[in-house]
């Protein structure tokens, strides 16, 4: 291949990069709870808001579909995916492997825990405001920053997709405060152990934390299956655990 032929691919690279950036924006909005499960993503309004072409937006949708965040329905368009109990079980298995593995490897106080600590502070602020979506976002970001302590871009990228899927799972919880608040407190306890360099202790706490959250979510999905059709089992903005 000549350099002229390679240069001809420049436009393709630009489009791909833009689609990646658009996908990242939409993924972040899903993590933050702006697009609940079942939301139809209108191409015209989103494309206009972001100032991107329809082709670029469709490529971003395709990327997010591969991440199991979106689903295309024939003749209806693109929708935010609705999770299942199997998603819960698989996601929590992944979380225990990744999150607990990162935390367990900590044997001395990390040099900089400011970003982890900031998420705990953000959670306390959201609780005072009774802003459950913000509390859920702070909680998810706590786990994102825990994994970031590993210093691995690949692991960070993996967790970004996992956390977006988690936000969709958490919408099954009927009472956001009841679900969020205990985990906010446990975040602080895990942070305290990490500050002391007790990674194994923090990992043990985190293991129990994740199993407790998984059990609650599996039970919530079971209750949802038993609820009458149209009763509305989920509360928008949920996002802890």
Automatic annotation (TrEMBL):
<dbReference type="InterPro" id="IPR008920">
    <property type="entry name" value="TF_FadR/GntR_C"/>
</dbReference>
<dbReference type="Pfam" id="PF07729">
    <property type="entry name" value="FCD"/>
</dbReference>
<dbReference type="InterPro" id="IPR036390">
    <property type="entry name" value="WH_DNA-bd_sf"/>
</dbReference>
<keyword id="KW-0804">Transcription</keyword>
<keyword id="KW-0805">Transcription regulation</keyword>
<dbReference type="Pfam" id="PF00392">
    <property type="entry name" value="GntR"/>
</dbReference>
<feature type="domain" description="HTH gntR-type">
    <location>
        <begin position="16"/>
        <end position="83"/>
    </location>
</feature>
<keyword id="KW-0238">DNA-binding</keyword>
<protein>
    <submittedName>
        <fullName>GntR family transcriptional regulator</fullName>
    </submittedName>
</protein>
<dbReference type="InterPro" id="IPR011711">
    <property type="entry name" value="GntR_C"/>
</dbReference>
<dbReference type="InterPro" id="IPR000524">
    <property type="entry name" value="Tscrpt_reg_HTH_GntR"/>
</dbReference>
<dbReference type="InterPro" id="IPR036388">
    <property type="entry name" value="WH-like_DNA-bd_sf"/>
</dbReference>
